[in-house]
Amino acid sequence: MREDILQASRLIREAHLVVALTGAGVSVESGIPPFRGKGGLWERLDPMEFAHIDAFLRNPARVWDILVREMKDIVDRALPNSAHLALARLEKMGDLAAVITQNIDGLHQAAGNRDVIEFHGSFARQRCMKCGKIVPTHLVSLKSLPPRCECGGILRPDCVFFGEAIPLEALTRSQELSSNCDVMLVIGTSAEVQPAASMPRIAKYAGARIIEINTEPTPLTASYSDLWLKGRAGEVLESLLSSL
Ligand code: NAD
Ligand code: ZN
Questions:
Q1: What's the CA gap between 169 and 178, in Å, rounded?
Q2: How confident is residue 36, by pLDDT bands cut at 50, 70 and 90?
């Protein structure tokens, strides 16, 4: 067993409150590409032109056609991978209090985690802009765009577009958990999108240990992380589980 994994498992066993912050890297093994970096969506599409709320309001049919349709295809088919399943298992074992996720794919809940804070909302749901009704994304037909609710209102992803605020409850709960945890697992996130990226910093200043799991170093690695478990989220979490 890797020494760094044994150290992480010791920290988790001694902790009273363990929280995870997850990002797109956790879902890569489910076939959902990250947005940033090589092969990412933002290499092909300008986020300000497609993922900004103003772009959606200006021309919802175009954003549905180019961005949302593609995401729906990917998210409708995706299944939880070994990283999601390991986090669900950690919660069941009583070793993980909550998952703060930046992901919008709904895969933590699908894996069985019960306390999931959706920092950027969810793409697995669509919301009517007129009456507020929520519809599961996989039930939405794309025959005519933008898709509409029974009431005639336009359906929009129930996630946070650029230019929109983080849901207040998600933000305050995340800040609270970050200030109170003893260990924060920071998994598969580039830690560059604010304000999510400030959660490990809040945790660190409040005295928590930061355990990062990522294939690459991030801006946190050198100055905030106590441990960097280098590797793919699924493999690292599976060995962490077996060491507990
Ligand atoms: P990001 O794309 O900025 O960074 C992904 C991180 O994951 C990188 O640091 C990369 O090194 C790491 N990584 C890649 N493969 C990995 C693996 N197998 N195991 C462990 N780490 C791996 O992602 P972000 O920090 O989450 O920010 C992107 C934003 O875009 C999020 O806020 C989210 O809302 C959205 N997004 C969501 C999804 C999703 O729901 N699955 C996918 C893409 C983007
Ligand atoms: Zn409606």
A1: 14
A2: confident
